Amino acid sequence: MGDLPKGDFSAPSLHTSMLQDVVPSAASDALLYSYKRSFNGFAAKLTKKEAQKLRGEGVVSVFLSQKKQLHTSRSWDFMGFSSRKVERSVIESDIVVGMLDTGIWPESESFNDTGFGPIPAKWKGTCQKSSNFTCNKKIIGARYYRADGEFSPDDFKSPRDAKGHGSHTASTAADILAAFDDAIADGVDIISLSVGGSFASDYFDDSIAIGAFHSMKNGILTSNSAGNGGPDPSSIVNVSPCSLSVAASTIDRKFVTRVKLGNGEIYEGNSINTFDLKGKMYPFIYGGDAPNISEGFTSEDSRYCLPGSLNETLVKGKIVFCEYSSDDEGTTEAGAVGAVFLDEGNKDYAFSYPLPLANLNMDDGRTVLSYLSTTETPTATIYKSIEENNQFAPFVVSFSSRGPNPIAADILKPNLTAPGVNILAAWSEATTVTETEDDTRVVPYNIISGTSMSCPHATGAVAYVKSFHPTWSPAAIKSALMTTAFPMTSENNIDSEFAFGAGHINPALAAQPGLIYDAGEIDYIAFLCGQGYSPKYLQLITGNNSSCSEETNGTVWDLNYPSFALSATPGKSITGVFHRTVTNVRSAVSTYKAVVKATPGLISQVQPSVLSFNTLGQKQSFVVTVRAEVGNSMKSGSLIWDDGLHQVRSPIVGYASLIK
C-alpha cells in the first residue's frame, strides 16, 4: 500500500486499469475496495495466478486477504488510575479514538454520552446509520466493512456488534486496510486494533503493519494486541516498530468455582460459573462409564467427553466427570446438569461455559476420579463462582504471545503489558455469554480474557497522554508509556522482557515522563533501509524520494527506540552499540544521571553518563555499548535516566536467537 499520488487522480479508474491487464473482461467486478483517502491501494477478488501477474513495477506488495483472529471495572483502579485521583486535561474531550473491531452495541451504558460536549470540530467521519444503529456524542461515528458482501444470518448490515468482541473492546486484511484508510482521513487521534494474524509477517505483507505505517505518517499511534499464542516463544504477531504492541497481564482478581462431593469434600476449580444449583446434590458419573456405543464410541472416547461420545440416557440430569479437556460441547449436548474436568492446562485465566463447570488441577482431579470409582452412589454439586484476591498480580498470563520478535530480532516486542485477564466490560446483547446456541444468558456486560482486553487499556492510556500533549508524535507517546511502566521481574514471568516488554503500564505517570525517545518517518525509513528494503520500494511506500545511502542506511540498533535488544548465535557473545537521543519534556533546567542495572553476563556502558538540559525541547544524544555473554539463555537489565524526580527506564536484553 503506497502513498497517494500527487495531484488529482481517480483511484477506482487507476485500480481498474491495473486489473484490466490481469482480468480484461471483468476488471470492474473484481475490484472490491479502492483505498484512496490516506494511502493508495486496492482489494480485488483474484485467483492465485492472476494475483501473481500484478506483481512488478509500481506495486509494493500483493498478499492474500486473510482473516484476522480476535485476540479475545476495577482494572483501572488496579493500575493506580482512579478517575477521582488522576490529573485531568482540559482538552481530553477532543481526543478521538478509532476502534477497529467486530462492531459496537450502542445502547450499552458504557457508551452513554451524558456529560459529553459537542463533537470535535476536526472530525470528518460519518455514522452509517440504519434502522438499528445510531451514534451520539460518545460514539461520534461508525462504519462497517465487508469486502465480499457476504453476511451471516446472525450478522447486522450495520456497525452493530453481533459477536460481543467489539463491544468488549474488520475481520479480513481488505476490511482492515479500508478501515485504516477511513480512520486516518476521518481525523482520529489513535487507532486501537485487537486483532491479528496467526503468525507475524513481513512488514509490507501485513495489512496491520501497513496501516500502522501510514497512521504514523499522519501522527496517529496504532495500539495493537500482541496475540494469544503464548507461552510459545516468538508467538507475537503484531511487531511493527511503529505500533504499540500490548501483552496481557492479570489484575488482583481471580474466580474460583467450588465442587462439593457426596462425602463432604470440597475442591476448588477454575471457571466463571454464574449458574446456581442451590447446593443440590446431583448424581455424579464418570464420562468413561457412559460411552455412546450405538454411534461407535468407546470409553476411550467418552472419558474425554468429546462431542457425540456420551450416552445421553446415562448422562442426562447428572454431573459428568471428564478427563484432560474443558470442551463443554459433549456434556452440553448430552443433557448433563454440570461438568467437572481434570484439566492439566494453565489456571491463570478462566472461561465461562453454557452449564455449571469447574476445571480441577491434576491432583484434585485424580482424587475426585478415585471417589467416583470407589463410591456406590456418587453425588456432587457445583457452586457459583466467587471472587478472590490474586496476590501475585500483576504477571503476564500464559496465553499472551511472547517475543522475541520473529521479524526484526533486535526490536523488543511486546512493548509493554496491560490488564487483560477477567476483564468486565460491555458486551453485545445480540449474542450470549459464551456465544453458543446452548447458552440462554444475554447480558450487557461480560467477563472475558485476551490481549484484546489489554489493548484497549493501553489505548485509553495513549488517549490520556495525548490529551496533555496533543502535538507529540506516536513514537513520543509510546516512549512515555514504556519508560514510565511499572518494572516487572522474571520471578513471576519466566520469559521476562519477552513476556512484559518494558513492564506494566502506568498511565498516571506516563503523562509526565521527563524525557522521551522520539522518532518520525525518516527514522523508520532509515530502519527499513537497514533491513534491506530497496529505495524504489520505499519510494512507493512513502510517496517521496526516499533513498538508502551510508547516511540513511540505519542499523536496527540506531532506531531511536526506548529499549535495547541484541541477539547472538547460541553459545556466542555479542557487543552492540546503540545511538540514542532523548528530548527534555518536563523541567527546563534538569540533570539526569545514568543508572545501569543488569544480570551477570550483561555489561552496559553509557557515554556520556550525565545529561544536562537548559530548556524544554532540548535534545541530548548518548551511546550505549552492551556486551552480552548469552550462551543459550537470556540476559536482561535496564538503563534508567534519573533526575531525582523522574526515572526514565528502558529495558536492555541480550539473548540467543535462532533467527538469521
Provide an overview of this structure:
With 660 residues, this protein is of the alpha/beta class. Among the domains are: 11-62, no CATH class; 254-388, Glucose Oxidase, domain 1 (3-Layer(bba) Sandwich); 560-660, Sandwich (Immunoglobulin-like). It is 20% helix and 23% strand. The strands form seven sheets. Strands 9, 10, 11, 12, 13, 14, 15 and 16 form an eight-stranded mixed β-sheet that branches. A five-stranded parallel β-sheet has the order 4-5-7-8-17, sandwiched between helices. A five-stranded mixed β-sheet has the order 21-28-27-23-25, with no helix packed on it. Helix 10 (329-333) links the parallel strand 12 (319-323) and strand 13 (338-342). Helix 12 packs across helix 13 (474-483). The longest helix is centred in the C-terminal third of the chain and has 18 residues, at 451-468. The radius of gyration is 27 Å and the shape is globular. The two termini are 27 Å apart. Mean pLDDT is 88; it is low at 166-170. Residues 558-653 form the Subtilisin-like protease fibronectin type-III domain.
CATH topology of the domain at 254-388: Glucose Oxidase, domain 1
CATH architecture of the domain at 254-388: 3-Layer(bba) Sandwich
Distance between the termini: 27 Å
Supply the number of helical segments: 17
Uncertain stretches: 166-170
Strand content: 15-25%
Structural class: alpha/beta
- Main sheet, how many strands, which sense, barrel? 8 strands, mixed
**Gyration radius, to the nearest Å?**
27 Å
Envelope shape: globular
Top-tier CATH class of the domain at 254-388: Alpha Beta
Average residue pLDDT: 88
Percent of residues in helices comes to 10-25%
